Amino acid sequence: MRIRHHRAFSLLYVGLCWLLWVNCVRCSQDTSSAWPDVTVVEQNAIRSERDIQNTITVDQLPYVGVNLRAILFNDESNQENIDTNTATSLNGTDYLDNFSSLLNQGIGSFILDIENKSNTWYILGTDLLLSDFLSTLNVFLDESNSSLSANIVLFFLRVHVNMPDDSTEDSVVSFQDILNTTSLNITRKTPLALSKKKKSDKEVATDPMLNITALIENNMNAAYIYRPEDLMEDNNFTMGTNLSVPAIDANATWPTLESFIYGKRKRIIVTELSSVFNQSTSPYFFPNSILHFDQQNTTLDCPNSQEQFRNISTIKWRILESQFDTTNIKQYMKCGLSPIVTNPYSIGNITKITPLLKSGMIWSWGPNEPRLSNSRLLMGKDSMQAYNCAMLKYIAADGSTSWVVDNCYAARPMLCKNKYDPFQWALSEEKHKYFTFYNGKDSDICPDNYTFSLPITQLEQRSLRLYLEESEVTNLNIWINLNSIAVSNCWLIGNRGVACPYQRSVSKRNFVSMLVPVVVISAFLLVCVLYLSLISVPIHDNRKNWRRVVNKISKSEMEGVPS
Ligand SMILES: *[C@@H]1O[C@H](CO)[C@@H](O)[C@H](O)[C@H]1NC(C)=O
Ligand SMILES: *[C@@H]1O[C@H](CO)[C@@H](O)[C@H](O)[C@H]1NC(C)=O
Ligand SMILES: *[C@@H]1O[C@H](CO)[C@@H](O)[C@H](O)[C@H]1NC(C)=O
Ligand SMILES: *[C@@H]1O[C@H](CO)[C@@H](O)[C@H](O)[C@H]1NC(C)=O
Ligand SMILES: *[C@@H]1O[C@H](CO)[C@@H](O)[C@H](O)[C@H]1NC(C)=O
Ligand SMILES: *[C@@H]1O[C@H](CO)[C@@H](O)[C@H](O)[C@H]1NC(C)=O
Ligand SMILES: *[C@@H]1O[C@H](CO)[C@@H](O)[C@H](O)[C@H]1NC(C)=O
Ligand SMILES: *[C@@H]1O[C@H](CO)[C@@H](O)[C@H](O)[C@H]1NC(C)=O
Ligand SMILES: *[C@@H]1O[C@H](CO)[C@@H](O)[C@H](O)[C@H]1NC(C)=O
Ligand SMILES: *[C@@H]1O[C@H](CO)[C@@H](O)[C@H](O)[C@H]1NC(C)=O
Ligand SMILES: *[C@@H]1O[C@H](CO)[C@@H](O)[C@H](O)[C@H]1NC(C)=O
Ligand SMILES: *[C@@H]1O[C@H](CO)[C@@H](O)[C@H](O)[C@H]1NC(C)=O
């Protein structure tokens, strides 16, 4: 009876959602852009990757980024804007809208080049004011300021100082100089030598008309920015000590993603790749010496041994600015690098960049995963089905690893990670149903000092792959510690004690308005999906149901009945 009741409701909501969606498509047609939607499945994949990395310090996270000069703010785009010859193409609105779309696609970092023209900061080579750019960025940060959508963004700034024509210096740093990365082979730790003579740097930095601190404070909410001062405070260093930020950074610990986004409510870190500004002229900028910044090709070896894995993970902010394709971007990321794409695009073909960005952004889940599911509806039909558990699929032939949603009732080896060394793995001796972990503890599954776990960085995933290769296993599907049992499609690490963090936002607030920054249509779909899983799998009900399921399983296991 109750199930039927729920089903009737579900159908009602499916209908309702469908209507909303159709309406939405209709009303969004005027403003439709060529940018592809971020599908609900992709959003779930990106969000679950963010969530499992909560405990990682922000300097070790993967960021897929772009060089905005290379892909958008360039001469080709200027020409295309003139050819288009509409009000929005000529006054820069198209530029900013497309930048906004890039942010909504989920980029994690960007390089922006700026120059001073007639005592004002402009984006290099365009007539776009830096202030308008910052306002656009701020709109994105405001719209995505919720536990559902918030993520960290790295802002790399390159400052070019234009000298007046009568100056004797050969001073204008041209685009070619910047982008011709083949001629640059710079290993970071010394400041990038892109900027001009020290004297003019100082002039710019202190020129009140070019006060970039004031510009930031006037055009965006500076509370989003994590400053050098914050890093010092978090490490209990006093400002009084005469240490510069690079020195502090050598011994400082960066905050974890969780404390960065939810604890401190920060969203963005600004680093100046040039060295025009300093700590006193611009307290929002980190110096480039905090980065391990490579151009063209990496100077770091791809780790192969336990020791190499440990060594590379002591290096902070491993960034590689280069041209990539959909294959090698993954390779570089597996070696622990954060790519910044400099492939040539322009405003006419910028949307074609999305497959490249996505192939970097979604590093864990396989294609079209995590597939959407509603466990209750399935359980109603067949009590031995619950597509709410994640397995790692290893293919021996090409050594590929990807995560796939599977039926929690299936019996598989379970993945164990060393408690003291995240690059040491083991598999459970026996195959287990996913519930075994819920019903028991690590010691039932994993060897001593190991715990049921999952790879939470690409380096860890690479070390796992090497372990599997060494073990000479054939194709294998392994349970990893990730499930959406509490609420379908909300992927969490752990057991039934863990609650979906978005559940409150769903019930307490207008879900739709929180999702506006993400592409509108998929937002509606996501609401439908999450709403459906909440309607048909209320938490309390689900827990009871869960206990019953677990009891049933343990009973059948005790009786030795195979499924
Ligand atoms: C650019 O032009 C469009 C259309 O006329 C207008 O809506 C927009 O406000 C303008 N933007 C700026 C920055 O002037
Ligand atoms: C992006 O640029 C294109 C080409 O100029 C333009 O048609 C479109 O309106 C811009 N905006 C967005 C959101 O993509
Ligand atoms: C840029 O700033 C420098 C230093 O303040 C100044 O000498 C130069 O004239 C400025 N250039 C322009 C085009 O305003
Ligand atoms: C972001 O949202 C949180 C709560 O939702 C709020 O406390 C915080 O002040 C907001 N941040 C900014 C910069 O508005
Ligand atoms: C880039 O630098 C290389 C090596 O210095 C040079 O051979 C090449 O012509 C440069 N390319 C451009 C477009 O300037
Ligand atoms: C780039 O730097 C590496 C390490 O410093 C060096 O071994 C290599 O020869 C350099 N390559 C070029 C083209 O200068
Ligand atoms: C820049 O602006 C900030 C904030 O308005 C101010 O505190 C600072 O003194 C200014 N710096 C200079 C060099 O004018
Ligand atoms: C800084 O001090 C606080 C309070 O004394 C402490 O909880 C925190 O662990 C310290 N942080 C570091 C990095 O030492
Ligand atoms: C970093 O820590 C080490 C060991 O505690 C110490 O010797 C060194 O002086 C510190 N470096 C800085 C820049 O504080
Ligand atoms: C980058 O360097 C690696 C070795 O460090 C080399 O195998 C690879 O071919 C290089 N890639 C390019 C594009 O130069
Ligand atoms: C995009 O357009 C630019 C110039 O308009 C061109 O150089 C580039 O090759 C194009 N990129 C792609 C992927 O089509
Ligand atoms: C587990 O770790 C503890 C502490 O590091 C160690 O004393 C013990 O020998 C380890 N056990 C095994 C089986 O490796």
Automatic annotation (TrEMBL):
Domain of life from the UniProt record: Eukaryota
Record-linked InterPro entries: Telomere_Capping_Maintenance, TIM-barrel_MTC6
Residues spanning the membrane: 511-537
Signal sequence range: 1-27
One Gene Ontology term, aspect cellular component: membrane
Keywords: Glycoprotein, Membrane, Signal, Transmembrane, Transmembrane helix
Membrane topology summary: Single-pass type I membrane protein
Domain MTC6 partial TIM-barrel, residue spans: 40-363
Main location group: membrane
Family: Belongs to the MTC6 family.
PANTHER family: MAINTENANCE OF TELOMERE CAPPING PROTEIN 6, MAINTENANCE OF TELOMOERE CAPPING
Function: May be involved in telomere capping.
Name recorded for this polypeptide: Maintenance of telomere capping protein 6
Native organism taxonomy: Eukaryota, Fungi, Dikarya, Ascomycota, Saccharomycotina
